[in-house]
Specification:
heterodimer; A: alpha+beta; 2 domains; 12-stranded mixed β-sheet; two-stranded antiparallel ribbon; 16 helices; 16 strands; 51% helix; B: alpha/beta; Rossmann fold; 5-stranded parallel β-sheet; 4-stranded antiparallel β-sheet; 9 strands; 35% helix; globular
C-alpha cells in the first residue's frame, strides 16, 4: 500500500465529483492542445508546402495572399483570371530580358472531384518535367505523366479564339467548337486522392463543376479521364490535387464563358465588350507558376510586375512567413485564453477537494492517529489533485486528436491544412506535465486545510 | 516503560481554561496490563491522547520507552506513535473504503512501512484472529466483533511496545467483548507489550493486572 493508492481510493469514492472535475480539465486541456496542434500543423504545412513555388503569377485584382492560398493551398475559389499572354511573354523573355525564367507553367482551376472536393487543375505536361517540388521533379508512385504541351495549348487557343470570335460576330459559318480529344482524357492524381478514392491506374475520375454538394454543381461526364499516374506522397496540398490537361478543363461544357480574359475598353460597356473579337493571347488562366533563373531575375520580375496592369507576381517565401507570423500572433492570444481556462479548471479542482475536507476530517484524524505526518496528509491530497488533473489532461489531449481525425476534412476545406491526428508533439508531453503540476498546486490549499485537522477532536465520532 | 510526572492538560472553553487531565505521578512497567478507570470527565481519553502524542501536555513530563515525547516536535511524535504505539478505539475507527487487510496495512504504512513483510504480517494477524476469509471485506460487511478484531490487528501490525485502548469493548455484547479482550491480552502477553486500557466496565478492568483510578492521580488527591 502506498500514499498514492489512498489518493486513488479517495477519488473513486467521490466518483461523480471526480468525473465532472476531470471533464472540466479535459475540456480546458483539449482546447489548449487543439490550439497548439492547429498552430503547429498549420505552420508546418504552410512552410513545408511552399518549397516548390518560387513565384506565382495571377490576377491583379486580388491580394498576394489570396492568390497564394488558392494556388498552393486550394483555399477558396480562384480569385480571378490572368491572360495567357503573360505566360507567353515570360517564356519568350519579353517581360524583361534579364528577368528570364526556367519555366512558366499555366494553371486553370474551378472544378473538383468526389465528395472530398479534391481540386482539379488544368495544366501542361511541363508540370511533370520542369516543375520542381523540393528541388526535384514530381515523383510518381505509379504510372507516369500524360502528354499535353504548351504548344498544343497555344494551338488550341488559336482554335478557341477563332470559334469564339465568330460566335461573337454572330457568323453562322464560323469554325466549330473544338471538342475534347480522347488522347487528352488522362489524369494524374495526388497520393491522398488515390488512397481515399481507392483509385489505381486505369481508374476513371469525373470532374464536377464547383464543389460536391454546392448549389449549381454538376458532373462533367464528357470529361471523364483515365488515371495514368499517381504521385508519390509530398505531405503537401499536391497530395490532394488532380492534374488534367488544360485542354480538358477548357473544353468541358459550361466553361465557355471563362475561356478568355476580356477587358472592357474605356468608353465601352460590358455588352459591347462581349461582341469584341478575342485572340489566343487572351486565353484565361487562374495562375502561372514561374521560377526565375537566378536571384537577379527574381528582382527584375518583381520590378516589372510591379507596374504591369494585367498581372501581379507573388513570392510565397515572402508572403507565407508573414502570414504565419500573423497567424502565430493570433494563436499566441488563443493560447493565453486557453491557459486562463486551465487555471479556472484548476481552481475547480481546488474547490471540489476543499469542499470535501469537512467530511474527511475523521478519516484524516484516523490516519494521523496511526502515525501519519502532516506532510503525508498533504501528499495524499495533493496526489489526488495531481492525479485528477493528469487524468483530465490525458483525456483532453486524446479528445483533441480524435477531434482532429473527425474534423480534418472540414479543416482542410477551410484552411488547406490536412491535420495529422496521429502526430503527437513534444509540447503535448509538456502540457500533460504542466497540467498535472497545476493540479498539484491547486491541491495545496485543501491539503493545508486537511493537514491542520485536529486529531483528538475528530477521533470520537462513530462511523 | 511509561512514566508521567506532574502532567497537566487544559482545554479552552470560550474564555475559560478547563483542567482536563492531571497526573502527579504514574509509572507502568514493560509488559504490564493496566486499566484506567474513573468518572466521566476525569480525563481518561485525554490521558490516552497524551500517551499517544496526539496531544501535548501543558506541563510535566511524559516518558515512554525512555523517550520524552512531551519534548518532541509534532512530526517526531507522529513518527514515534506510528512505530511504538498501537491504538484501539471504542469507535473502531476503521476507514470504510478500505478492506480489512488494507485497514491493517494502513497502520503499517504510517508506522514501519507497508512493504511485503508488513503484508505478510497483516495477513498472519488476520488469520490469527479468525478473519482469514474476511480479509478483503470492507468494515460495513463485517460484524461488530470482526471489526474490533481488525482494529486489534491494525494496532499490532507494527509490533509496538505499547498498546492503548479507549473503551475497546463499549460497542459489543459482553460475551463477544470478553473473547476479543482475551485475544488481545494474549497477543500482548506473547509480545511482552504494555497495555493501557481506559474502561468503565469493572469486569474488563478485572482482567487487567492493575487498575488505576484517574481521580487518585491528581495532585490534590495525593
Amino acid at each position: 500500500m502506498r500514499l498514492l493508492s489512498i489518493s486513488m481510493r479517495n477519488l473513486r469514492i467521490r466518483m461523480v465529483s471526480t468525473v465532472l472535475t476531470t471533464l472540466a480539465i479535459a475540456v480546458a486541456t483539449g482546447l489548449y492542445a487543439a490550439i497548439m496542434l492547429m498552430a503547429q500543423q498549420t505552420r508546418d504545412r504552410y512552410e513545408g508546402s511552399i518549397g516548390g513555388y518560387q513565384a506565382v503569377l495571377g490576377p491583379k485584382d486580388c491580394s498576394q495572399l489570396e492568390l497564394l492560398l488558392n494556388t498552393i493551398f486550394h483555399v477558396g475559389d480562384a480569385p480571378g483570371q490572368v491572360p495567357i499572354s503573360v505566360c507567353d511573354d515570360l517564356r519568350a523573355g519579353k517581360v524583361s530580358r534579364r528577368g528570364a525564367v526556367r519555366y512558366a507553367i499555366p494553371q486553370a482551376r474551378g472544378d473538383s472531384i468526389s465528395r472530398w472536393s479534391f481540386p482539379v487543375i488544368g495544366t501542361v505536361d511541363e508540370m511533370f518535367s520542369l516543375y520542381e517540388w523540393q528541388r526535384a521533379p514530381l515523383q510518381f508512385a505509379a504510372g507516369g505523366p500524360w502528354s499535353f504541351s504548351y504548344v498544343e495549348l497555344q494551338e488550341l487557343g488559336e482554335r478557341l479564339a477563332a470559334h469564339e470570335s465568330a460566335r461573337r460576330a454572330e457568323e453562322k459559318s464560323g469554325p466549330p467548337r473544338p471538342v475534347i480529344d480522347a488522347k487528352w482524357k488522362r489524369a494524374v492524381v495526388g497520393h491522398r486522392v488515390a488512397r481515399q478514392m481507392q483509385l489505381s491506374l486505369g481508374g476513371v475520375i469525373v470532374p464536377v463543376h464547383g464543389k460536391h454538394g454546392e448549389f449549381g454543381y454538376h458532373e462533367h461526364p464528357e470529361a471523364a479521364c483515365e488515371v495514368v499516374g499517381i504521385l508519390a506522397p509530398t505531405n503537401s496540398p499536391l497530395d490532394t490535387t488532380v492534374f488534367l490537361p488544360l485542354s480538358v478543363h477548357l473544353l468541358v461544357g459550361g466553361h465557355e464563358g471563362g475561356w478568355f480574359k476580356v477587358e472592357v475598353p474605356s468608353g465601352k460597356n460590358p455588352d459591347d465588350a462581349a461582341k469584341l473579337p478575342v485572340t489566343a493571347r487572351q486565353l484565361a488562366l487562374t495562375a502561372i507558376l514561374a521560377d526565375p533563373k537566378d536571384h537577379l531575375g527574381a528582382q527584375f520580375l518583381r520590378r516589372d510586375f510591379g507596374t504591369r496592369p494585367d498581372a501581379q507576381v507573388a513570392w510565397p517565401q515572402d508572403v507565407i512567413p508573414k502570414f504565419l507570423q500573423q497567424l502565430g500572433n493570433a494563436a499566441d492570444w488563443l493560447e493565453i485564453v486557453a491557459q486562463l481556462v486551465l487555471v479556472v479548471a484548476a481552481m475547480m479542482i481546488a474547490v471540489a477537494i476543499y469542499n470535501t475536507m469537512n467530511e474527511r476530517r475523521r478519516e484524516i484524524a484516523i490516519m494521523r492517529s496511526l502515525g501519519a505526518r502532516r506532510s503525508q496528509i498533504v501528499a495524499i491530497i495533493v496526489g489526488e489533485a495531481a492525479a485528477l488533473s493528469l487524468a483530465g489532461a490525458v483525456v483532453g489531449v486524446l479528445c483533441c486528436h480524435i477531434a482532429a481525425l473527425a474534423l480534418r476534412s472540414t479543416v482542410e476545406e477551410m484552411t488547406g491544412v490536412w491535420l495529422d491526428w496521429t502526430a503527437f508533439a513534444p509540447r503535448e508531453l509538456y502540457l500533460l506535465v504542466g497540467v498535472g503540476a497545476l493540479g498539484a498546486i491547486a491541491g495545496l490549499l485543501p491539503a493545508w486545510k486537511g493537514s491542520t485537522t485536529q486529531v483528538a477532536d475528530n477521533l470520537s465520532q462513530t462511523y | 516503560m511509561i512514566h508521567l510526572h506532574d502532567v497537566k492538560k487544559h482545554y479552552r472553553q470560550g474564555e475559560n481554561s478547563v483542567l482536563a487531565c492531571e497526573v502527579s505521578d504514574l509509572r507502568i512497567g514493560r509488559g504490564e496490563q493496566v486499566a484506567l478507570v474513573g468518572r466521566s470527565g476525569t480525563g481518561k481519553t485525554t490521558l490516552l491522547h497524551l500517551l499517544a502524542g496526539i496531544l501535548r501536555a501543558d506541563a510535566g513530563t511524559v516518558e515512554i520507552a525512555g523517550q520524552r515525547i512531551d519534548a518532541m516536535t509534532e512530526p517526531q511524535r507522529d513518527r514515534f506513535r506510528g512505530q511504538h504505539i498501537g491504538m484501539v478505539y471504542q469507535t473502531f475507527n476503521l476507514l470504510q473504503p478500505f478492506t480489512a487487510l488494507e485497514n491493517v496495512l494502513l497502520g503499517a504504512l504510517f508506522g514501519r512501512g507497508a512493504g511485503h513483510d508488513a503484508e505478510a504480517r497483516a495477513k498472519s494477524l488476520l488469520e490469527r484472529v479468525g478473519l482469514a476469509d474476511r480479509m478483503h471485506h470492507r468494515p460495513s460487511e463485517l460484524s461488530v466483533g470482526q471489526v474490533q478484531r481488525v482494529a486489534i490487528c491494525r494496532a499490532l501490525v507494527n509490533d509496538p511496545e505499547v498498546i492503548l485502548m479507549d473503551e475497546p469493548l463499549g460497542n459489543q455484547d459482553k460475551a463477544t467483548g470478553a473473547q476479543v479482550l482475551d485475544l488481545l491480552l494474549q497477543l500482548a502477553r506473547e509480545g511482552n507489550k504494555t497495555v493501557v486500557m481506559v474502561t468503565h466496565d469493572p469486569e474488563s478492568a478485572q482482567r487487567m493486572q492493575r487498575t488505576v483510578d484517574l481521580a487518585t492521580l491528581r495532585r490534590s488527591a495525593s
